[in-house]
Amino acid sequence: MYYTSLLPDVVGISIRNIHIYDKVLNELIFPLKYLVDTIKIIKKTKWNIPIIAGGAGFSMYPRQFMTEAPEIKYGIFLEGEEFFPQLLDNLDSPYNVKGIFIRDKNEIVFTGDRSFVNFENSIIPDRTFIPFDNCKKGNYSLGVQSKRGCSLQCFYCSYPYLNGSKLKLRDPKDIVAEIEELCYIHGVTEFAFADNVFNIPASHAEKICKEIIKRGINVNWIAWFNEQFMDERFVDLCLEAGCRLFEFSPDGFSNKSLRWLRKNIQTCHIQNTYNIARKKNMEVSYNFIIGIPGQGPISLIRQTIFILKAKIFLGKKLKRIQFSKLGIEPSTALAKLAIEEKK
Ligand code: B12
Ligand code: SF4
């Protein structure tokens, strides 16, 4: 039995990942299957209300998702903060809202581009209904964003497409107020900075650390760091502010492969993070991409030596070394090259 007054007006589905490597099953999983299952459950309710999709995965392949899942009525392209509420206010006239996909009879219509939201002034998300007990300790599954966008333009990366290539920095005081709320109201003891890169600009990251220390918040966190802007003083500050894992994704190793990937770093910057890690009580992880141009036999030997040294001398401080294949994601310079080469 359903109580009409409690019926929702819409159902929103977040489509985040296109593919996940499942370490337990040792295989790639495509979440589309779960999307179809989720939609089936929603349809069983017979509520007959619009299903609205959004999320990073959706925004990378909006038309494909709308085509594969014809039950989706609207899709929010890229950020949801301003445009999702606007759509909810305009369900009778959705064409008034920019940046959305609408299923109109048999057609999928896009209402037109709009600019990124003013993330600098964004408010603290309301997390009242988040089941924090499900966030398993040690997983750092809760994300806090201190900024959006990335001003670098790595060849293969879709982040500037998803979040813009202009950096939008929140006020460190607002960020730390959010962290305080998580700790003192929701009892959270750990989180991850969900920034593309935490320490660009380094001055912003430093201000956040100093604010955490000033307010005496006892919390553990992890983040992704750029190798170029690491030094001992900065590492000390992060450690004092609660950083428990410094994650690095240099992706390439030789200068040639780093240049091909259009990274802002050189091999010496990667070596430097290892040297600092040996000196300091910091845990690190490294991600590399295999099979990229510039990885000749000599550079492969050098990379293997680096990995062996890290395994031997960092011991337990080395949390993870991960290898992945180069993927071609939409709207990247790499995707454009692949399309041109196919022609
Ligand atoms: C930080 C991050 C991580 C961190 C998360 C840390 C944490 N505890 O939160 C870590 C390292 C753990 C991680 C892991 C993975 N990640 Co990741 N991650 C990101 C990153 C950089 C930011 C995600 C984030 O939190 N953003 C902040 C939130 C607020 O933004 P958002 O989720 O996009 O939501 C906004 C909009 O999308 C929209 N929206 C979202 N949902 C909905 C729903 C509705 C109805 C509406 C209307 C709108 C809407 O509104 C929101 C506000 O604007 C993105 C890249 C990026 N720049 O987006 C990749 C990204 C999401 N990750 C990705 C992947 C693949 C993974 C992994 C599968 C990697 C792996 N092989 O293991 C895992 C999966 C983890 C999981 N359980 O899902 C992909 C997903 C797409 C894809 N290629 O499949 C991305 C897009 C990167 C990429 N280009 O490849 N990730
Ligand atoms: S790989 Fe990292 S640094 Fe490079 S563009 Fe993407 S988010 Fe920015």
Q: What's this model, at a glance?
A:
This protein is an alpha/beta fold.
Topology:
Blueprint: E1 11-14, E2 20-22, E3 27-29, H1 32-44, E4 51-54, H2 56-60, H3 62-68, E5 72-76, H4 83-89, E6 100-104, E7 107-110, E8 143-144, E9 147-148, H5 159-163, E10 168-169, H6 172-184, E11 190-193, H7 202-214, E12 220-225, H8 232-241, E13 243-251, H9 255-260, H10 267-279, E14 284-290, H11 297-314, E15 318-325, H12 333-342
Parallel strand pairs: 1-4, 4-5, 8-11, 11-12, 12-13, 13-14, 14-15
Antiparallel strand pairs: 2-3, 5-6, 6-7, 9-10
Helix pairs in contact: 6-7, 7-8, 10-11
The structure holds cobalamin (B12) and iron/sulfur cluster.
